């Protein structure tokens, strides 16, 4: 049997493992599911005859190399910074590799050697990055094949809570890594190009510069800018495009509310707060407010944020129990961002019956035969439950499908790459439709811009 080594059995691996096990008989597959926690690997494989769960510490070099040497192909579902040692072992033992993570500089440096050995190192084949690349390149290539010239490309994606599970004033719950949510937008100004002009949004105003989106059947959303919208300009072949913008989707009102934390300084991860372990939630809030001999923490908060007590923004803060003097942070040597994450986790953790939702939205503006036109492409995916979430489905299924296509010789191009070639995106997008990941494309009037206003 052909052996697939899956390293990492976390949340994103559930749909990946289920898919490959469902194909294991017809495709002659045996899965080795490796994780630091043997119990977790056992839960994900569910005593399937074509799967073997193993405990694997990737920092034990010989143990890691032995597992990779025995595999026909390797899937790494580890955090991005841990892929590189796996990749080097894959080169040494001549194994193909698949990951859902962004291509790091270290990974890119292996490109030449991977090509020499006719090895495929497929990266960015999850949701975002992944499905966003594939669904975008499909439409962009179709426009080009008709002789069209791309003018505008805007792309948005968000992990949200499904409508039936949307039960708080923020219209949001953690469906993925909470830390990434708290730190979103930090590390430099957001940059993009609009009507040929470079635009920059510093972190301090990021959440007050939003774009609104409408998705039929699901209502209105907003999006704030990703940090670097320009990194894929050359990869997509859009060097001369007038407008290129990528953003993160949330429900309307989220960004304005989140901006309160930004303005107070609660999202800062650069310093440790003294005696954080014994701090109450109320003391945490108060530490960012000026001293006043008579005003309460609540009054000082409203004054500094300029919100009235009948404003929905105030209700959103109250809902988080931020001013509770009895709740303790219980985190030693914590940064403000870590404390905020802890507070939000109290309120934003999914309930056992909750479902998550992925929303993706692309806009393609182009000129064809002297006329300007636009295609909007939208996808909504709702999870089954807390194991087979929409996030796990949209991250794991493309990884699994790419793995099988590589094993079967359908993807042939060697080297370190992302899924922008037809041999990758056409079969995967087609098969994803069978699993409810469907893009609805519609022609709409070209949105356009008035260059005089820019």
From TrEMBL:
Residues 4-121 form the Saccharopine dehydrogenase NADP binding domain. GO terms for cellular component: cytoplasm. Pfam families: Sacchrp_dh_C, Sacchrp_dh_NADP. The keyword Transport does not apply. InterPro entries: AASS (IPR051168), NAD(P)-bd_dom_sf (IPR036291), Sacchrp_dh-like_C (IPR032095), Sacchrp_dh_NADP-bd (IPR005097). Residues 126-437 form the Saccharopine dehydrogenase-like C-terminal domain. Coiled coil: none annotated. Keywords: Oxidoreductase. Gene3D superfamilies: Dihydrodipicolinate Reductase, domain 2, Domain 3, Saccharopine reductase, NAD(P)-binding Rossmann-like Domain. It comes from the Bacteria. GO terms for molecular function: saccharopine dehydrogenase activity. GO terms for biological process: lysine biosynthetic process via aminoadipic acid. The keyword rRNA-binding does not apply. This is Saccharopine dehydrogenase. The lineage of its organism: Bacteria, Pseudomonadati, Bacteroidota, Flavobacteriia, Flavobacteriales.
């Amino acid at each position: 049997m052909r052996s697939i080594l899956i390293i990492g059995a976390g949340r994103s691996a559930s749909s990946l493992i289920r898919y490959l096990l469902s194909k294991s008989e017809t495709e002659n597959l045996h899965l080795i599911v490796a994780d630091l926690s043997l119990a977790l690997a056992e839960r994900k494989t569910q005593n399937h005859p074509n799967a073997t769960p193993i405990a694997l510490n990737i920092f034990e070099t010989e143990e890691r190399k032995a597992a990779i040497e025995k595999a026909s192909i390797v899937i790494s579902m580890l955090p991005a910074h841990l892929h590189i040692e796996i990749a080097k072992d894959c080169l040494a033992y001549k194994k193909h590799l698949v990951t859902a993570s962004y291509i790091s500089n270290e990974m890119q440096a292996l490109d030449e050697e991977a090509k020499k050995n006719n090895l495929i190192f497929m990266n960015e084949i999850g949701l975002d990055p992944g499905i966003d690349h594939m669904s975008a390149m499909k439409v962009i290539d179709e426009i080009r094949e008709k002789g069209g010239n791309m003018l505008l490309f805007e792309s948005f994606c968000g992990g949200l809570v499904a409508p039936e599970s949307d039960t708080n004033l923020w219209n949001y719950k953690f469906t993925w890594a909470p830390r990434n949510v708290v730190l979103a937008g930090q590390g430099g100004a957001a940059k993009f190009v609009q009507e040929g002009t470079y635009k920059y949004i510093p972190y301090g105003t990021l959440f007050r510069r939003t774009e609104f989106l409408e998705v039929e059947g699901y209502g209105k959303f907003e999006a704030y800018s990703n940090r670097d919208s320009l990194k894929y300009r050359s990869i997509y072949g859009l060097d001369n495009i007038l407008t290129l913008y990528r953003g993160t989707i949330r429900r309307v009102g989220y960004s304005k509310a989140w901006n309160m934390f930004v303005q107070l300084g609660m999202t800062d991860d650069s310093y440790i707060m003294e005696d954080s372990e014994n701090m109450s939630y109320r003391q945490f809030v108060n530490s960012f407010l000026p001293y006043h001999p008579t005003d309460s923490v609540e009054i000082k908060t409203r004054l500094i944020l300029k919100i009235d007590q009948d404003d929905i923004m105030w209700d959103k803060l109250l809902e988080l129990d931020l001013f509770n003097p009895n709740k303790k942070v219980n985190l030693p040597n914590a940064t403000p961002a870590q404390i905020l994450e802890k507070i939000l986790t109290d309120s934003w953790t999914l309930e056992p019956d909750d479902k998550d939702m992925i929303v993706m939205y692309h806009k393609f503006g182009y000129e064809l035969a002297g006329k300007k036109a636009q295609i909007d492409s939208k996808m909504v995916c709702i999870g089954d439950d807390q194991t087979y979430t929409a996030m796990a489905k949209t991250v794991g299924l493309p990884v699994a499908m790419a793995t099988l296509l590589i094993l079967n010789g359908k993807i042939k191009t060697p080297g370190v790459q992302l899924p922008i070639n037809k041999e990758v995106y056409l079969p995967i997008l087609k098969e994803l439709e069978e699993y409810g990941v469907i893009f609805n494309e519609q022609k709409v009037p070209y949105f356009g811009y008035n260059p005089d206003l820019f």
